[in-house]
User: Fold this.
Amino acid sequence: MTALTLEPGRLRWLGWAAALRAWLFLGFLALFFEAWARIAYGTSFFGNGFNLQSIAVFAVAPLLLALGQTFVIISGGIDLSVGFTMGLAAVIVAHIANIAGDAFGPVTGFVLAVLITLPASAVPGLINGWLVARLGIPPFIGTLGMYGVARGAAYLVAGGTSVPVSNPLLAGLGSGSLLGVPLVVLVAIVVVIAMHYLLSQTRFGQYTYAIGGNREASQRAGIRVGRMTLMLYVLSALSAGVGGILYTARFTAGAAQAGEPLLLDSIAAVVIGGASLFGGSGTIIGTVIGALIIAVIQYGLVFVDVEPFWQFIAVGVVIIISVIVDQSQKRLGSWVVRHG
Amino acid sequence: MAEGDADRSGPLLEVKGISKLFGGVHAVEDVSLSLARGEVLALAGDNGAGKSTLIKMISGVHRPDGGEIRYRGEPVDFPNPQAARDRGIETIYQDLALADNLDVGANVFLGRELMCRRFGFLPVIDRKRMREEAGRSLAELDITLHRLDLPVRQLSGGQRQAIAIGRAVHWQARVLIMDEPTAALGVPEQRKVMALIRNLRGSGAGVIFISHNLGDIFEISDRIVVLRRGLKAGERRTAETTPDEVVRLMVGG
Assistant:
């Protein structure tokens, strides 16, 4: 027998670089705003509990959209409809909490509202998944169509205006806190832990990566790629649905446009967190860092008194730079494979 | 093992008078061959001679229009490639086999992950055991990887081919079909894959191997079946023939 010895890869550091990049960026931003606060106002930015809490609350909605989006992007797809799926959920939960609250009391009203809103928010995801997995429509187009459909549905359900919440439990979820941590942040942390487990420790997560890495090989290995794709879009919609419920709780009103500016933020969080838009890579921890980066940029710019519209420009620039860095790392990687 | 070997003495795979028509034209006509355990059978022939059509009938991609395929003593009729794979007839494709972003263990166990319980109740994927078992399986084919926790993207084409073959053997493939396995590889990598195919003999699997390269064919095959224009032009024991004779069979005359 002839022994075949295979060399170890020399590109291990490239994998670390993607994750490291997000941490470094967050660290850089932290130092930047800390320095600004000390020089301009003579106070600490991060030493201030109110600032930290505000950043965490700020990050919740984009993070929830980004968590489901992480799975979809890793599998090689994209979900452009999450913003209005969130708006739809925000409006539905407000309506049902009010109606069921009047009929059965606040506790039952709150429980019913959550139990009905979650499956309802899964519907756009089911349709997205069906379009992409069964009809073979490119995710960009299928979910863009659903963006319009969910938007219209959300405004119709809302009756063209925002829906104020009269249910005290739902409002309490938005304003309450436990040991100084806002409840909405606690809910987000629980969802993060569940999503991290699902992505990194289960077959579902493993197949998400496999489909993004090589769809054909996944199919040949017996993975039911179509069913997985359907479930991925449902997961994304559910994640956005939780985001909608927390939005309504926080602002004590459901609004169809709740998630409108958050689509960009959610994709930015996933990409800044080290996921590739070509699929196959990404982590929940990375996405959490990405969402924190965006929240720090947005809150930090308000803190240093820059006109709020600069936030959109800053996030847009950061998303483009992240993709450029990701692509040049890939090019460097394949160059090393060919010439190294 | 999925099923007992009822008939260990007979050939592993027998193809009898098989034919395939595409639009009234015979792509393969009345071809017979047999493959024994631990044997490497080379399929030679010019472009369009019917080599690919023949192996696609064996692997369940095409259904034969005539003739019979017997596998381990029984007649078989595979409706699709999955059915053939489930019975242990595996085709190794260079690009379709592996998920580049997953490590060696995850690729070998793709679709059949090993699980364990953390904290006594939480089911998690057992990456460590998948790597260890994948490493052991590859070691049986004399493939040594220093690290099993790297995404296979970081391995060379020959290494990935080795992992795809190792996976097939791990999951009890009995017939391995390889269409130009060395085509996209550099010369040192070609040598490694050839050595690996030789090592496969020891695993008891039969190998059907298509190649344009007579050097490769003569180096590792036990027998050579030559096709020409869909017909079987000849069959020789590799030890008893010469490249000249095989070329004559391929081009006719």
User: Anything to note?
Assistant: The first strand of chain A starts at residue 4 and ends at 6. The CA atoms of residues 96 and 113 of chain A lie 5 Å apart.
